[in-house]
Amino acid sequence: MTPTTPRCCARCGETALSEFSAKRVAKQIEPDGRQPHELERTQSWNYSIFNLEAFISAANIGEKLGIDLWKFESPDNRSIRKALDWLLPFVTGEKKWNYKQISVFEPTKLAPLLRQAALRLNEPAYEKTIYKLTKITGDERWLLLLPELIDTK
Question: Taking the model in full, what pTM does it have?
């Protein structure tokens, strides 16, 4: 390993992440927030969460490199936030998930992503939504890793 290796890796990461918004967000998220490729799968809820988790991980890495993917929005309004907002009514029960889901529909899978978004976007509504989910017990590991944005108790 040479002394320049970390810088080279950082440059490659910066290049990949600077192209990420156009190559991934704008192609995988619709203007209303749907993720159509994931909705075609047999476990559409799980894959929608998994894909959004990858976007959020990329946004967290980008943050370290000075690239703000959290607030990226395409000219036609495609964004990580839109994808998260599109899923919200399904976890709160306002809408029923009518896409194919051959395993149990688990709204709580969105909770860790809501916490991260609440912190990064300073959005108290995301934090409050976490505690509307009936199966959050307070023992979840992600609760230890990500501090609360607001006191909801």
Answer: 0.81
pLDDT at residue number 120: 92
For residue 132, what pLDDT is reported?
81
Query: CA-to-CA distance for 104 and 85, rounded, in angstroms?
Result: 21
Sole residue written with tokens 């978004």: 117
CA angle 91, 94, 97 (to 5 degrees): 60
With a CB cutoff of 8 Å and minimum separation 6, the contacts of 84 are 33, 52, 110, 113, 114, 117, 126
| Cα 60 from Cα 50, distance rounded (Å) | 15
Q: What is the rounded (10 degree) CA torsion for 45, 47, 52, 57?
A: 140
pLDDT 10s digits, 47-75: 999 999 999 999 998 888 888 999 999 99
> Which candidate, 86, 80, 44, 40, places its Cα nearest to that of 61?
80
Domains and CATH numbers, the chain: 5-145 (1.50.10.100)
Q: What is the pLDDT of residue 1?
A: 44
What letter does residue 101 receive in the DSSP assignment? B
**Structural contact between residues 126 and 114, judged by C-beta atoms closer than 8 angstroms:** yes
